[in-house]
Design goal:
Layout (H helix, E strand, L loop, with lengths): L7 H8 L9 H15 L1 H18 L2 H13 L15 H12 L1 H13 L5 H15 L1
Length: 135
């Protein structure tokens, strides 16, 4: 978007050569955070796991209901969050949600894994997520 040759920066310069570009500090900081995570295999795995965990529950209204019932039983206010490539704070929110609701998430996954009415693929995915949580 701010491309020097074909982006917004170039378009503004074409219209007014006295205009100058000031990069957004918040966006630059977000890019630093993203690059830092990409440089660490462990951090990348962790955030990939958080996204898989969110997607597992969010892609099914039944599974989301299992999770929200467990959270309501224990009066928890956080719910799982999706990651965002543009907002670093989403990663913090997702981490806090996992930390605050670890037991409820674990119980929800094991309930789905042990449910005889669930599809085999769902049970296998749930089992894989449980194994990752136990590490």
């Amino acid at each position: 978007m701010s491309g020097k040759y074909r982006g917004l920066q170039a378009e503004i310069r074409n219209r007014n050569n006295l205009a100058f570009y000031v990069p957004c500090a918040a966006h630059s900081l977000n890019l630093v955070g993203q690059c830092s995570v990409e440089a660490s295999t462990e951090a990348s795995r962790y955030f990939m796991f958080l996204q898989k965990l969110y997607a597992f529950f969010a892609n099914s209204t039944h599974r989301w209901d299992v999770l929200t019932r467990k959270l309501q039983e224990n009066k928890k206010k956080f719910t799982l969050k999706s990651l965002s490539s543009t907002r670093w704070s989403c990663r913090e929110d997702a981490t806090k949600a996992l930390e605050a609701n670890y037991d409820e998430i674990y119980d929800s996954l094991t309930a789905i894994r042990d449910d005889p009415n669930e599809k085999k693929e769902t049970k296998m995915e749930s089992s894989s997520l449980v194994n990752t949580l136990e590490k």
